[in-house]
Design brief:
The complex is a heterodimer of chains A (189) and B (788). Chain A is mainly alpha-helical and 189 residues long. Chain A has two domains: 12-83, Recoverin, domain 1 (Orthogonal Bundle), CATH 1.10.238.10; 103-188, EF-hand (Recoverin, domain 1, Orthogonal Bundle), CATH 1.10.238.10. Chain A contains ten helices and two strands; from the N terminus they run H-H-H-H-H-H-E-H-H-E-H-H. Chain A has helices spanning 11-21, 25-38, 49-53, 57-64, 74-82, 105-116, 126-137, 143-157, 167-173, 179-182; strands spanning 123-124, 165-166. In chain A, helix 4 crosses helix 6. Chain A is globular, with a radius of gyration of 19 Å. Chain B has 788 residues and is mainly alpha-helical. Chain B is extended. Chain B has a two-stranded antiparallel ribbon. The chains are: A mainly alpha (189), B mainly alpha (788).
Chain lengths: 189, 788
């Protein structure tokens, strides 16, 4: 991804981003300077060494890009980061009629779901699960055991019997997990 | 591209474009003029001024996020002032707005070396351009006349590109308003903000570095992670237990050094004779030149240290010391040991309760596979080594979960169960018989040692009993293990627990015999010598011998066995790490330490050194010679079990031994802090009587001592209250767990009701009240149970 952004960030865009994502003024400005500093070399690509050692690195990168495009702008960057904003208590019941904030539990889970759903068919099939497992646990495990683990996971989560995990089943099986806390990054104010 | 008059270019398009040109004196800011770089609207592809917020490749043309360029002209100045709430959406105004034409040639094609006068040539001769300029300046004036909020509102609604809006805003900004912008004034304000941000960031990273530094200081962190990842949580629990024992010993030793060893070292008593020469044998026997040191009971004085002259209590030494604090050694000895045991008891009970609470969590285990698969990867890892560790950990955990689930799937027939029960009964009988036999053998042998005349000066003869006991301790568990291999067990957890029980009974039998031997027989035999020194030295010998035999066992049991099994027997499998036996060895060593603390205040230090060496030896041997358990299993309750075993048989037994020694046994009259008393506990009574005689100022202390501590009725009352409180707590906890289970059932029922209409008939009813955890917790509650 390239970033050839200028150093100007106008107030009206700030306001829009603020309304859409819920970050504060100063947070958006900080993140903007971080965003612009990401492509220091100005050659259109980024190098993030931490992602290289992460087995799910390319999935994370893919999550930042909207459908079918190969570049991301600051709005898209903020939209993705907004999923990781911690949920504050005072905004839980603020706007019942408006659209759900990006950092709600459901949206966080949807983000996580999209990491695993490779072909974007709103289902995690056994093959996709096997790929994820293979990436996560390395190589010292037999295929048979991996297959058993994948089968067992689908068996636990699947409720409509289609041998795949849909988004609602995903939400159901993770209902005990404190997603709001695990999927949050503390952004400096 | 040659220079053409402006008008020709403008004629190509249906409508002239905005004049945010690079060369317009009125539009370009002074900054750009000074730098000489033409600021030419938003088609400058080489310049740095791109529309904000766009990160795109160098593919020419900025990516306008919203407005597509369409032809409209600049708004005719709104004749009437716009109301604040009125959006400028009247078709005339907005249709009149005109964005920049996208067909404007790029600056790259413009010859920069053209003289400014030539560049200005365009502007002045272009009538439409001037018209546009006028319109724009009128619009700007109009905007300036509005309030800020209205201006923003209006600008927001205009269908122009962001770049153009920005320039409009720039122009319409009042001098005072200019200072409000983020970028506007540059200079002092944003510098302050940046400084503040840098400070906050530096502090934040410093805090994080401190935290990670503190974490790195915890000993053996990496080693433990590696062991846990490679061998599973069961083997890891052994090493964690070792670490816990180290902590207990360190705490106890600190107390003893501060209150007993320290003062005695500062005021050494006169030695009875010339100190014997140190040969190397002391390290094994504890006798010889170790005898008259602070290491053993006999060295401690029975007087008040640092006492100024003229006190009636002190008979012997009277060195005049000015301004010192008198230190009553017998009292300090007794109460420090008592306080050490009390603190150890509290810490043990607390850590046991804490670990119990953690392992018996009220929560169902449904969905544990999915949660582990989806939620266990920690994305914060940034190092390759850490990510490999995490992979190991997750893999082992998944294997353990799978094994546990597969275990539950296979039930047994009735015949098989009967056979299993018979084999189990037989094995138990044999193991109990072994334990009894060991105890009898030790008793007989120790009696023999007492009866037979000991050759004087034969220090090595002292090592015989520890050696024999150690060998029995080593051999009998192997026998029990062989017996256990014959009987079939389904779950590895149960196997380990059964092995632990048997081993424990064996060790308790041995230790019980030994305690009787020391306090019953040795005291009687060694009446006019220092029997406490002897018992302290015996315990030291046992501890050292235990360590030596453990080293030999690790060497032969693991290393040599691996070499044999690989070379001679040609088996692929390395030996497995025997958790039960190793843990009980640790508990045994700790019991010996606790038994010997009264007679040898430096024994916990010996135990600390021993534990440190044991950790490294076992870790090396594990990584080199052993392999992961064939059937991985989840060791969630292991640490609780270990701590419970440490607390109940081990600590309780040591406490009983201590109480008996303090209350019932007459201390020897030739050595130690209690040499003139009938029992060690008398020291307290003597002091209280002294306080009574001292004066009326401290009369409440003897009163407390007489009516509350020595009064048996009060002790009974306190014990009864304590028991009542414990019982009430148990009932409350039980009731709460029952309520939780009921609530969970209600929730799952509600879910079923809600989904009920959508489900086909015969759908399996989901249950979320995890059966196993509920059964565990509600011991004896025969409530409704659903099949999970």
């Amino acid at each position: 991804m390239g970033s050839r952004a200028s150093t100007l960030l106008r107030d009206e865009e700030l306001e829009e981003i603020k309304k859409e994502t819920g970050f504060s003024h100063s947070q958006i400005t900080r993140l903007y300077s971080r965003f612009t500093s990401l492509d220091k070399g100005e050659n259109g690509t980024l190098r993030i060494p931490e992602l290289a050692i992460n087995p799910l690195g390319d999935r994370i990168i893919n999550a930042f890009f909207p459908e079918g495009e190969d570049q991301v702008n600051f709005r898209g960057f903020m939209r993705t980061l907004a999923h990781f904003r911690p949920i504050e208590d005072n905004e839980k019941s603020k706007d019942v009629n408006g659209p759900e904030p990006l950092n709600s539990r459901s949206n966080k889970l949807h983000f996580a779901f999209r990491l695993y759903d490779l072909d974007k068919d709103e289902k995690i099939s056994r093959d996709e699960l096997l790929q994820v497992l293979r990436m996560m646990v390395g190589v010292n495990i037999s295929d048979e055991q991996l297959g058993s683990i994948a089968d067992r996971t689908i068996q636990e989560a699947d409720q409509d019997g289609d041998s795949a995990i849909s988004f609602t089943e995903f939400v159901k099986v993770l209902e005990k997990v404190d997603v709001e806390q695990k999927m949050s990054i503390r952004f400096l104010h | 591209m040659s220079l053409r008059p402006r008008g020709t270019r403008a004629a190509r398009s249906p409508a002239p474009t905005m004049k945010a040109k690079c060369t317009t004196p009125s539009t370009s800011s002074s900054k750009n003029r000074a730098s000489g770089r033409p600021r030419r609207g938003w088609s400058c592809s080489r310049g740095s001024r791109r529309p904000q917020g766009v990160a795109s490749r160098r593919s020419g043309g900025p990516r306008a996020p919203r407005a597509r360029p369409h032809s409209a002209s600049w708004p005719a100045c709104p004749a009437a002032p716009l109301a604040a709430a009125e959006a400028p959406s009247s078709p005339s105004t907005t249709a009149a707005l005109q964005p920049r034409r996208s067909s404007r040639p790029l600056l790259g094609n413009f010859v920069l070396s053209a003289r400014p006068s030539l560049r200005l040539y365009d502007l002045e001769l272009d009538p439409t351009a001037r018209e546009e300029e006028e319109k724009q300046s009128l619009l700007v004036k109009e905007l300036q006349s509005l309030a800020v909020a209205q201006r923003d509102h209006m600008l927001r609604g205009m269908p122009l590109s962001l770049a153009e809006k920005r320039s409009l805003r720039e122009k319409s900004r009042t001098p005072r308003g200019k200072w409000r912008g983020q970028q506007g004034s540059g200079g002092v304000c944003s510098c302050c903000g940046r400084l503040r941000y840098a400070c906050v960031l530096a502090l934040h990273s410093l805090g994080l570095a401190l935290l990670s530094g503190l974490q790195a200081l915890t000993p053996w962190r990496y080693a433990l992670k590696r062991i846990g990842g490679q061998f599973g949580s069961s083997v890891l629990s052994y090493f964690l237990f070792l670490k816990t024992l180290l902590a207990f010993n360190a705490l106890l030793q600190l107390l003893l050094v501060a209150f007993i060893v320290g003062p005695q070292v500062a005021f050494p008593p006169a030695l009875p004779g010339p100190a014997p020469i140190c040969t190397g044998l002391e390290l094994l026997t504890g006798a010889g030149c170790f005898t008259h040191t602070v290491m053993f009971y006999g060295h401690y004085s029975n007087a008040t240290l640092n006492q100024p002259c003229g006190s009636p209590l002190d008979g012997s030494q009277c060195t005049p010391r000015a301004g010192g604090l008198p230190y009553n050694m017998p009292l300090a000895y007794l109460y420090t040991v008592g306080a050490g045991f009390f603190i150890t008891c509290i810490t043990l009970v607390y850590s046991m309760a804490h670990s119990f609470g953690e392992s018996y969590r009220v929560g169902s285990t449904s969905g544990i596979h999915a949660i582990t698969v989806f939620c266990s990867w920690d994305y914060k890892v940034t190092q390759k080594r850490a990510s490999r560790l995490q992979q190991d950990n997750i893999r082992t955990r998944l294997k353990e979960l799978l094994a546990e689930w597969q275990l539950r799937q296979s039930p047994r027939s009735v015949c098989g169960r009967l056979r299993q029960a018979a084999a189990l009964g037989l094995a138990w009988l044999l193991c109990l018989g072994t334990a009894l036999g060991c105890a009898v053998a030790i008793h007989v042998f120790s009696e023999f040692l007492i009866q037979s005349p000991e050759a004087a000066g034969q220090e090595a003869a002292l090592l015989v009993l520890p050696l024999v006991v150690g060998l029995l301790n080593l051999g009998a568990p192997y026998l029990c293990r062989v017996l256990a291999a014959l009987e079939p067990h389904d779950s590895p957890v149960l196997e380990v627990y059964v092995a632990i029980c048997r081993n424990l009974i064996l060790k308790l039998a041995i230790l019980g015999t030994l305690c009787y031997h020391w306090l019953g027989r040795r005291v009687a035999v060694l009446q006019d010598q220092c029997w406490e020194d002897f018992v302290g030295q015996e315990l030291y010998r046992f501890l050292v011998m235990d360590f030596v035999l453990m080293l030999l066992d690790t060497l032969f049991g693991e290393l040599v066995w691996r070499i044999i099994s690989e070379k001679k027997l040609k088996r692929r499998r390395k030996p497995e790490f025997d958790i039960a036996r190793n843990v009980l060895e640790l508990i045994y060593g700790q019991t010996l330490t606790w038994l010997g603390v009264l007679f040898s205040p430096l024994l916990p230090a010996v135990q600390i050194i021993k534990l440190l060496l044991v950790f490294y030896v076992k870790k090396t041997s594990l990584l080199a010679n052993c392999q992961a358990p064939r059937r991985p299993w989840l060791a969630s309750h292991m640490s609780t079990i270990f701590l419970t075993l440490l607390c109940f048989p081990a600590f309780l037994g040591a406490a009983i031994f201590l109480c008996y020694a303090v209350w019932q046994v007459k201390p020897s009259s030739t050595c130690g802090p209690f040499r003139t008393l009938d029992s060690m506990y008398e020291a307290g009574r003597v002091w209280v009587r002294y306080l009574e005689a001292a004066g009326p100022r401290v009369s409440w202390l003897p009163w407390v001592h007489r009516y509350l501590v020595e009064n048996t009725f009060f002790v009974f009352l306190v014990s009864a209250l304590l028991l009542a409180v414990i019982y009430l707590n148990i009932q409350v906890v039980r009731g709460q767990r029952r309520v939780i289970c009921l609530l969970k059932e209600q929730i799952s029922n509600a879910c079923i009701l809600l989904l009920g209409s959508a489900l086909p008939p015969g759908f399996p009813v989901p249950s979320h009240c995890g059966l196993s955890s509920c059964r565990f917790l509600l011991w004896g509650w025969r409530g409704k149970t659903k099949s999970s």
